[in-house]
């Protein structure tokens, strides 16, 4: 590898690392904020304090996750310019504008209400607090919309023309509503909801399994499983639709995802077989070995029995993406999604048969262990899905228009390596401490001793108190 | 790169004001949080250090987000500057960002940790605040030097000059000056956020007296160096309109004096407002000194602007989103205005 090829590879790794260690937090923030809003709304509507305790408990996990998301997220916005300066300059008129709108309409919007949601208990009214939670849920979803819009445009760059090295926007509507975003955004948003549901399922199942506060956590467990019965199949459906769009607009990415090297079999017939597993040969122009099922590929990608799917051999060699990462990441993502769907059906079956009642669910240890395992699967799915998207787009940074090596900053190997090592160090600490404090908050359990906080009762103070007048200190940390 | 029409020139100018406004709000709001962090290194009491963090718990995230907003405006409106300046500033930005990561963890996880880890977390909080201020200041100084660009026809000029070019005596000095400035903001913040009679408030008062003079000296040194090494600065300051700059200087001295008077009289919030006024005047003066450059001798605001700037998106952002953003931020600060005591760390 030449020096410049190595630094291009390193700057891809640099960006891949910071994205991989950022994308595990915001989806939980987005999904959990919606679920917290639901639970808080139930509390305000029914005055059932069990909802309140559920909200306060999950809020503590929420803020741990949120802090990690902020810590790793600020880097993301700067990193485009730092690591991909020429790309940022060229794509700025569209891509930068979209990210700019994200900060103004979503990131700041979220930051403006998160403090009230977490630390506002006792300072603002019940209704205002519910409103703050609603705004956090809405703003974080908006944030996902803008980010996915920008990323989708990199997959299917419509509405722009390359002039003097700059992507000039010729049609804003076509660029914003590019073909990929129609399913790319819903797929991500539903992934956020699915992750949050599985998170709630796993945490609640742990309490039920260890027989702590079973009366409190049986209900979120049951509600989340019921929601997953709808969400998990919906996600599979959306993923299938997105696959069709990729097949249409990014045939190279699809061929890599499916390990589909040759359009035709040696005998001249269309290769319709779907590879379950396999490994590329030394030359990288075919699988050395694979296990395949005939007709499944055509069924999946064209929804016909014998439909032709263009293989990698239709793509010039210099434009072919790597195969192993998209191929396996795609399979793992799909398998995890399928497993979650089966789990949801299992839970629904138990609910229908009345085996979810307080006394009975605690005895079903197998189901509860499966539920805990389910908390981890969406994380793996989200990682794999993003890797499919990003590696599958290679060697392009803007698909078909700008190659990755044209987009990277002029960086020497030393500084690219410095960045990678620095971020490996800091973000592994973020990751480790996030999970450490998740575990710690779970072990300490919900706080049932402190009185339920009903609306703003605290004195908020005066900006310039008259000298000599004594204020009563009042400050409440989130329990 | 300047293919803008007349309307776009005006819109670009307005976006530039919005960019400066966001940066200024970041410096004013997060500067105080950073300064309180630097100050916390010298606070002996464990509970007082915890209370400093509690005092900013509800607002630090939004304060820091102004930097993200500034970055977003820069990326959206001045992408040619964004893509080259950040490449140039890779190392100081990475160091400042690692500081921000550390601060975020220290702020949010301290109250969950065991006591020995809280001590560790306090040290991390103090030093990371120091690092963010220092490397942030260094980045500003480095930008004032300008940087070399490629010159390939048909391609946007992009940064070329390596990762270490940002280190100069001037940029090291601006880093130090930034630490002094945020520390002043920090002690004023501590004064306003703690109950009367709290020992930490007295300590902050003693600091204010010293740092106030240090900050004035730092400003004077920065102006003197700039005048001697940057022709674009001395040309403006000592040109035809030198009397305007004299008025600006008087205004800065006046606001600084008012800040000191208010601080002495225990009118803490008023003192912060006067301090903010002084910083705003100086920031405005600096922007006007650099104008029309965004990065001296490298990009003007017009050559750095996106060809896609339009009146429509600007009106949408400034008429719609910015005012709303300011409203809910102000509301949040208003809700969390109550003074705290060292007791806050117990919760």
Automatic annotation (TrEMBL), chain A:
Assigned GO CC terms: cytochrome complex; plasma membrane
KW Iron (keyword) present: yes
Superkingdom of origin organism: Bacteria
Keywords: Cell membrane, Electron transport, Heme, Iron, Membrane, Metal-binding, Transmembrane, Transmembrane helix, Transport
Record has Membrane as a keyword: yes
Subcellular location: Cell inner membrane; Cell membrane
Transmembrane segments: 15-39, 60-84, 104-122, 129-148, 188-209, 221-238, 328-354, 366-388, 416-438
Any one GO BP annotation for this protein: aerobic electron transport chain
Topology of the protein relative to the lipid bilayer: Multi-pass membrane protein
Pfam families named in the record: Cyt_bd_oxida_I
Single GO term (MF): electron transfer activity
Family to which this protein belongs: Belongs to the cytochrome ubiquinol oxidase subunit 1 family.
Designated name of the protein: Cytochrome ubiquinol oxidase subunit I
Source organism (scientific name): Acidisoma cellulosilyticum
UniProtKB/TrEMBL annotation, chain B:
One GO biological process term: aerobic electron transport chain
GO molecular function: electron transfer activity; oxidoreductase activity, acting on diphenols and related substances as donors, oxygen as acceptor
Protein location: Cell membrane
KW Nucleotidyltransferase (keyword) present: no
Pfam families listed in its UniProt record: Cyt_bd_oxida_II
InterPro entries found in the cross-reference section: Cyt-d_oxidase_su2 (IPR003317)
GO cellular component: cytochrome complex; plasma membrane
Membrane protein topology class: Multi-pass membrane protein
Domain of life: Bacteria
The UniProt record lists the keyword Transmembrane: yes
Keywords: Cell membrane, Membrane, Transmembrane, Transmembrane helix
Membrane-traversing stretches: 88-106, 127-147, 167-190, 211-230, 242-259, 271-291, 311-331
Family the entry assigns: Belongs to the cytochrome ubiquinol oxidase subunit 2 family.
Name used for this protein in its record: Cytochrome d ubiquinol oxidase subunit II
Organism: Acidisoma cellulosilyticum
